[in-house]
Specification:
This protein is of the alpha+beta class. It has 19 helices and 22 strands. An eight-stranded mixed β-sheet has the order 5-4-8-2-1-11-14-13, with no helix packed on it.
Length: 609
């Protein structure tokens, strides 16, 4: 099956192992070194290996130790320019199954889509520089010429040098003690990943980092200014791992460490094996956002061990991971909490569909991505529409006692592999061979190929949502807000307060600017440190046209990095004439400090490109 997001030819060649040798150069802001790829031909007489490559300076290439010809082709039929170039490498005559070695001497360029380089003033400590990668979905090609498709999985080793006293971490386990070189003032780190991974899970960070142990196989890393708070916030990591193992099977990655990144990180978390990256926004001080860690832990099985074959099947990563995450929530906090999270997920799904448009084919569960960058298709759809399908199937087929054994069997059957939606459906029918009639009653075409909300919305237990809905309705009916007080929220959890704001955001009748001000008098939402509350509170102010929300919303947008928060805020600010001019000005001033993924997407949101 061809990957529309890759130039490579994995149907002709298999990558088995990658050995990296890098110098992290903070002065030039690049990685310098070489990569050795251990490859295998899958057909006779395949004469050209095609790798994905994006703005990399190639110095030389050897095949089996001999110099060879190579060329860079900027794009090809059906591949848009942002997919980078095809690196065409001439090969000697090879027989089917013959193994060969490719040595590539190169250095990355700046800017580089996978890397963010931060000067000391941009860090918490203000003393040392910082660098981190974000390779999902198709950015690894900017730091490593490779078959940048999730269908090609490989192990890797790495030898990485950096100026002391900086620390290097990777999506792997340290294989030997670091080595210090007094002559050039560098420290060299050695890593090994024994489990085959798709290319997008290659990860690296270099910075002034400290760690605290969380359990027998996990620790949290951060700049020292946040490490103690992070250790408290994520104290239940080992408990979550143990619950996940009961549901999905043994944890095979040896270590599960967390790294708290600077605020510019574009996502809530990134499931890099052995080293999950998380946004500092999760360190809320009340452990109210640690479900994100449950999500990233779940990726250790669904996504990392069992992987979507192309980005068109992304729901197999994210829908399954959301499903497993909420199973962990059930085990730790009860079924009502899972139901409550599912209802909140439907709101997130509706928001994404509203942003794209209800008839946009990118809201299909299995979208077509020919000529579409995967980042442009990114939304809550694969997460929540995928979860909804799996929850619907669980109820249809007999509940958790029936469906959880299928989850375990599915992971065991496809571990270390990549698969398509079609292969998943075939295995579902094979496993539930005695329930074919029930499965045939599912409108698979509507689930996979229809835009908008799911064709079936399951009935969820709304007991935890009722107080949120009722309080929202009372505010929407109120004229002055005089009947409300801080006592209204006294029995609500942080998550319920968040969903109360979500109800207001999706209400057909928006509250007035005066009521927005009155609500802040009662509940003091503007003083909350929890970033999820902050985000929805400011979004509500912008939607109800409260001018008092403009400056705080702009400040929020330029200080946060997670796209979930930043992009909707910029869209609201940029879509209101009252705030657009100052928003665009603030964005342009902040753009050099943003992650390249986030900055590029916000440009589109503000219609500046």
């Amino acid at each position: 099956m061809s990957d529309p997001s890759s130039h490579s030819n994995p149907h002709l060649f298999k990558t088995h192992h990658v050995d990296l040798n890098w110098l992290v150069d903070f002065e030039k802001k690049c990685l310098i070194g070489h990569a050795d790829l251990s490859m295998q031909a899958l057909e006779d007489n395949s004469s050209t290996l095609i790798l994905d490559c994006d703005n990399i300076t190639i110095n030389s290439i050897l095949v089996n130790g001999a110099s060879t010809k190579f060329s860079l082709t900027p794009g090809k039929a059906g591949k848009v320019e942002v997919f980078g170039s095809a690196l065409n490498i001439s090969l000697p005559t090879l027989k089917k199954n013959e193994k060969f070695a490719v040595h590539i001497d190169y250095e990355t360029t700046n800017p580089c889509s996978a890397l963010q380089w931060m000067d000391p003033p941009q860090t918490m400590g203000k003393v040392h520089p910082f660098m981190y990668s974000q390779c999902q979905a198709i950015n690894v090609r900017s730091i490593l010429p490779c078959q940048d498709t999730p269908s090609d999985k490989w192990t890797y080793t790495a030898k990485v040098s950096v100026k002391s006293p900086l620390v290097v971490l990777m999506s792997a386990v340290e294989s030997e003690d670091k080595s210090e070189n007094a002559e050039d003032g560098t420290t060299t780190y050695f890593y090994e990943q024994k489990i085959p991974i798709p290319s997008y899970l290659l990860a690296i960070v270099a910075g002034s980092l400290e760690s605290r142990d969380l359990g027998p196989r996990s620790r949290v890393w951060s700049e020292k200014e946040m490490v103690e708070a992070a250790a408290w916030e994520f104290a239940k990591t080992e408990e979550m791992l143990q619950v996940a193992e009961k549901l999905a099977g043994p944890y095979v990655w040896r270590r599960y460490d967390l790294l708290v990144l600077p605020p510019t990180f574009p996502f809530g978390g990134m499931e890099n094996p052995c080293l999950t990256f998380v946004t500092p926004a999760l360190v809320a001080g009340d452990r109210s956002l640690t479900h994100v860690v449950a999500h990233e832990i779940s990726h250790s099985w669904t996504g990392n061990l069992v992987t979507n074959q192309t980005w068109e099947d992304f729901w197999l990563n994210e829908g399954y991971t959301r499903f497993l995450e909420r199973k962990i929530i059930t085990a730790m906090y009860g079924e009502k909490n899972r139901q409550f999270h599912a209802l909140g997920g439907l709101k997130d799904l509706q928001d994404s569909i509203n942003a794209f448009g209800a008839t946009n084919p990118l809201t299909n569960l299995v979208p077509k991505l020919d000529g579409v960058h995967p980042d442009d298709a990114f939304s809550r759809v694969p997460y929540e529409k995928g979860f909804t399908l799996l929850y619907y199937l669980e109820q249809l087929l007999g509940g958790g006692d029936v469906f959880e054994p299928f989850l375990l069997s599915y992971i065991d059957h496809f571990k270390y592999k990549s698969l398509t939606t079609s292969e998943w459906k075939t295995y579902l029918y094979q496993y539930f061979h005695n329930k074919q009639e029930l499965l045939d009653s599912v409108d698979w075409n509507a689930w996979f190929n229809s835009p908008g909300m799911p064709p079936v919305i399951p009935e969820y237990d709304d007991s935890m949502m009722t107080s949120c809905t009722q309080l929202c309705q009372r505010w929407c009916r109120s004229e002055t807000g005089s009947e409300f007080s801080s006592d209204d929220l006294s029995e609500m959890s942080t998550k319920q307060k968040f969903e109360f704001l979500g109800e207001l955001l999706q209400s057909e009748k928006l509250i007035s600017p005066a009521l927005y001000a009155r609500m802040d008098e009662c509940y003091q939402f503007s003083a909350y440190k929890n970033v999820e509350i902050q985000c929805r509170w400011l979004q509500l102010g912008l939607k109800c046209r409260a001018t008092s929300a403009i400056q705080p919303a702009i400040q929020f947008a330029v200080t946060q990095g997670r796209e979930k928060y930043v992009r909707p805020m910029y869209r609201l600010l940029g879509g209101w004439e009252e705030s657009r001019e100052q928003t665009v000005k603030a964005f342009k001033e902040n753009y050099p400090f943003m992650h390249p993924i986030t900055g590029g997407n916000v440009k589109k949101d503000l219609k500046l490109v």
